UniProtKB/TrEMBL annotation:
Family from the record: Belongs to the ABC transporter superfamily.
Keywords: ATP-binding, Nucleotide-binding, Transport
Originating species: Aquisalibacillus elongatus
A GO molecular-function descriptor: ATP hydrolysis activity
NCBIfam families listed in its UniProt record: oligo_HPY, PRK11308.1
A Gene Ontology BP annotation from the UniProt entry: peptide transport
Name of the molecule in the record: Peptide/nickel transport system ATP-binding protein/oligopeptide transport system ATP-binding protein
């Protein structure tokens, strides 16, 4: 499988300003040296607790936030080198579906207007063509074509996320960043949306980066899964490897915290102590050492490299060096 996207050394630092003059007093390393590839047609899950940098990573890939450093190579082109205008054209190929379908849909616009917007941006000028495409897209996501004149509040949460998906699909994208698209939905609706997204992937040969805060959501849908902690990837491998044989102590802890006992996978229980440290003041050495049940002396001093310890299995941990 060939990569559609290669991310190399991606960083996003936010300034912390303070005092009367708003001088820079430090920075938050929201994303700190993240590298991974995404293969064409795959679903890559990206998981971690809130504040781990997964959403910022997703947005930085589309330059919805401007990366501080690194390369984002989409179909052999480093998109961080593109001008605003070139980037605008590329957005046709790279789309995002947001977590909160209510906040991301303009409440004063009809569904038709919401879905037409990206069509107009990318040159679909005739209103007849727009109307037809909107109807088609609504049907594709499982909504009634003649509900195009309704407003977002007239739909349920799950239906609103279907509208968000229809909008993302409007210009036949190749890659969709899905930023916790089911987290705000009732559990009963989550699997319907996940099934829809999987169907759409197959039907339109899409590639997804699927962001979630827990491993149970991405388990079914992902081909590979990456786990993030404090702005960095700590483990990345195939779904089966990750769930059957997690290597990083943080992944092991996340898996053992999955509330419903899962007979498919057995993992020794790991209990995490303490809170996630602040990304504005991350621990020295391994960022996980303050909570890691396996921590050794070296972990406080030296940051472990993110390296391939066996075929397709990347881990950042001194236990595997
Ligand atoms: Fe734990 Fe050390 Fe591995 Fe970090 S490097 S996860 S502290 S064992
Ligand atoms: Mg988020």
């Amino acid at each position: 499988s060939t990569p559609i996207l290669e991310v190399k050394g991606l960083k996003k630092y936010f300034d912390i300003r303070g005092g009367v003059f708003g001088k820079k007093v430090g920075d938050v390393k929201a994303v700190d040296d993240v590298s991974f590839t995404v293969n064409r047609g795959e679903i890559l899950g990206l998981v971690g607790e809130s504040g781990c940098g997964k959403s910022t990573t997703g947005k930085a890939l589309l330059r919805l936030v401007e990366p501080t450093d690194g390369e984002v190579i989409f179909e052999d082109e480093n998109i961080l080198d593109l001008s605003k205008e070139q980037m605008r054209r590329l957005r046709k190929d790279m789309q995002i579906v947001f977590q909160d379908p209510y906040a991301s849909l303009n409440p004063r616009h009809t569904v038709e207007k919401i879905i037409s917007e990206p069509l107009i941006t990318h040159g679909v000028e005739s209103s007849k063509e727009q109307k037809e495409r909107v109807k088609e897209l609504l049907e594709v996501v499982g909504l009634e074509a003649d509900h195009a004149s309704r407003y977002p509040h007239q739909f349920s949460g799950g239906q609103r996320q279907r509208i968000g998906i229809a909008r993302a699909l409007a210009n036949n994208p190749k890659l969709i960043v899905c930023d916790e698209p089911v987290s705000a939905l009732d559990v009963s609706v989550q699997s319907q949306i996940l099934n829809l997204m999987e169907e759409l992937r197959d039907k339109y040969h899409l590639t997804y980066i699927f962001i979630a805060h827990d491993l149970s959501v991405v388990k079914h849908i992902s081909d590979r899964v990456g786990v993030m902690y404090l702005g960095g990837l700590v483990e990345l491998t195939t779904k089966d490897q990750l769930y059957e044989s997690p290597k990083h102590p943080y992944t092991q802890a996340l898996l053992s915290a999955v509330p419903v006992a899962d007979p498919d996978y057995e993992v020794d229980r790991v209990i995490l102590e303490g809170d996630v440290p602040s990304p504005s003041n991350p621990p020295s050495g391994c960022p996980f050492h303050t909570r890691c049940p396996m921590a050794m002396d070296v972990c406080k001093e030296v940051k472990p490299e993110f390296r391939e310890i066996e075929d397709q299995h990347f881990v950042a941990c001194h236990l595997y060096e």
